[in-house]
Specification:
UDP-N-acetylenolpyruvoylglucosamine reductase, alpha+beta, 3 domains, FAD binding, 6 helices, globular, 15 strands, Uridine Diphospho-n-acetylenolpyruvylglucosamine Reductase, domain 1, binds flavin-adenine dinucleotide, Uridine Diphospho-n-acetylenolpyruvylglucosamine Reductase, domain 2, FAD-bd_PCMH-like_sf, 5-stranded antiparallel β-sheet, 289 residues, Uridine Diphospho-n-acetylenolpyruvylglucosamine Reductase, domain 3, 4-stranded mixed β-sheet
Length: 289
């Protein structure tokens, strides 16, 4: 099948505002293809590679700052294609589309735990592995703690590699250095945990993370670094620091508004005595990166 007929006849495709697909509610127009199965995703990815069509992978859009001017690369939305969860004793294999809260909730019903704190993280397994999602600084817990292996498309074929292959560290995996790698599923070995205890941990976590401003559009922590300077309240356009490390979109914020706020935060943190470089956690999508 040609690339055109694949998009016209097989894979669900539409042109849409990416703001409809990101937690920050920011992002211009793009062509978005949503494969409905793993096979369809592989067919599309292979076809893109053969035809030199650049693509970007969209999970739940909860860590993305997308250019308000839009993106010309094809966006491959993974939300439908890899939704299975298989449990075999303490071994769990979850598809890339599975939401992290869904996974945390699912495994506790099998008396497994360890990722209750991820119940508050609205990403997918794919995005979580890509970002090595985890708990705030000081807690030292990340999704990769229980990871055994990852199945991914390597630009040519499907490959499975053990955890060590991906150099996980603070909000980093080597997927971030390989644009064409696409996570299909991840296998974990979770510790046994009493269902009631896990449920309580989830409730405690949700109480801690719930606040009014957190319910406004945002994409989690802006920077990887612990506690940046207090910038709460600083605002450009409709983008505003709701705390030292979180920017909310109070209305019609643009990607430029957010980038300007980030720039101010970086400069302010650099020029103070003993200042330091803030490393960006957001994944920023623009046509030139
Ligand atoms: C309210 C809120 C709370 C949050 N709390 C936390 C927290 O406590 N801890 C934390 O670590 N993060 C947190 N985040 C950030 C975010 O949820 C995580 O980084 C999450 O793992 C991103 O997953 P996603 O599916 O949304 O990825 P997206 O935002 O869609 O994508 C992020 C990156 O991953 C890539 N990607 C996604 N899926 C795949 C795939 N299948 N294969 C290859 N690449 C892929 C994308 O191309 C992109 O570069 C929070 C965000 C919000 C909005």
């Amino acid at each position: 099948m040609t690339y055109e007929s694949l998009l016209d006849e097989k894979v669900e495709t539409k042109v849409d505002q990416l703001s409809n697909h990101t937690w920050l509610r920011i992002g211009g127009t793009a062509e978005i293809a949503t494969p409905k199965s793993k096979e369809e995703a592989i067919e599309l990815l292979s076809c893109c590679k053969e035809n030199n069509i650049p693509y970007r992978i969209l999970g739940a859009g909860s860590n993305l700052l997308v250019d308000t001017n839009g993106i010309t690369d094809l966006i491959i939305d993974m939300k439908k294609c890899c939704q299975s969860i298989e449990v075999d004793g303490t071994s769990v294999t979850a598809g890339a589309s599975v939401k992290l809260p869904q996974l945390a909730n699912y495994i506790i019903r099998h008396d497994l735990g360890g990722i209750e704190y991820l119940y508050s993280v609205p990403g997918t397994v794919g995005g979580g592995v890509f970002m090595n999602a985890g708990r705030g600084m000081g807690h030292n817990s990340t999704l990769s703690d229980y990871l055994v292996s990852v199945e991914f498309f390597n630009g040519k074929e499907i490959e499975t590699q053990p955890r060590e292959y991906f150099d996980f560290s603070n909000r980093y995996s080597s997927f971030q250095d390989h644009n064409d790698w696409v996570i299909l599923s991840a296998t974990f070995e979770f510790p046994e945990e009493n269902e009631e205890d896990s449920t309580q941990k989830i409730k405690d976590r949700m109480l801690k993370t719930k606040s009014r401003e957190r319910s406004l559009p945002n994409a989690g922590s802006v920077f990887k670094t612990g506690q940046p300077l207090p910038l709460k309240g600083l605002q450009i356009g409709d983008a505003k620091f709701s705390d030292n490390n979180r920017i909310i979109n109070t209305g019609d914020a643009t990607s430029k508004d957010v980038e300007r706020l980030m720039k101010i935060a970086k400069i302010a943190n650099k020029i103070i005595p003993g200042g330091r470089d803030l490393k960006t956690e957001y994944q920023i999508w623009k046509d030139d990166n």
